[in-house]
Amino acid sequence: QVQLVESGGGLVQAGGSLRLSCAASGRSISNYAMGWFRQAPGKEREFVAGISWSGGITHYTDSVKGRFTISRDNAKNTVYLQMNAVKLEDTAVYYCNVQRRTPWDWGQGTQVTVSS
After folding, report:
1. In angstroms, rounded to a whole number, what is the distance separating the alpha carbons of residues 116 and 114?
2. Cα 75 → chain centroid
3. Residues 36, 79: contact at Cβ < 8 Å?
4. Nearest to 9 by CA among 17, 18, 40
5. Residue 116: is it exposed, middle or buried by C-beta count within 10 angstroms (0-12/13-18/19+)?
6. Would you list the DSSP string of the chain?
7. Contacts (Cβ under 8 Å, ≥6 apart) of 71
8. What is the DSSP pairing of strand 18-25 with strand 3-7?
């Protein structure tokens, strides 16, 4: 059973930065493409960023391109999301998970709140 624990969220002013972490336990993530997802109040969970198993390929939803960077450290079984130049619309609970049709159990997520 894989457990995913997200951390690093908080309150940040628009234009500021945050670095989110996602630590996995119970299984090595080194063979899996991983992703970050977010869910804003009243909205469905959406894809934010993805990274291949080796870290060599990344992709992003259009709204975060050029501002967010996904990375991973397979030795630490951890995935990161560097968030720069955050905007009010980035406010959401952020989750990580494997990128496949059937995700692992979702973690509790980490709340990111952007203030003006």
Report:
1. 7
2. 18
3. yes
4. 18
5. exposed
6. --EEEEE--EEEETT--EEEEEEEESS--TTS-EEEEEE-TTS--EEEEEE-TTS--EEE-GGGTTTEEEEEEGGGTEEEEEE-S--GGG-EEEEEEESSSSPPPP---EEEEEE-
7. 51, 55, 79, 80, 82
8. antiparallel
Q: How far is Cα 8 from Cα 57, in angstroms, rounded to an integer?
A: 24
Kindly report the backbone phi and psi dihedral angles of residue 56, in degrees, each rounded to the nearest multiple of 5, phi listed first: -80, -20
Q: Amino acid identity of 40?
A: A
For residues 79 and 71, the answer to whether their CB atoms sit within 8 Å is yes
Q: pLDDT tens digit string along 14-70?
A: 999 999 999 999 999 999 999 999 999 999 999 999 999 999 999 999 999 999 999
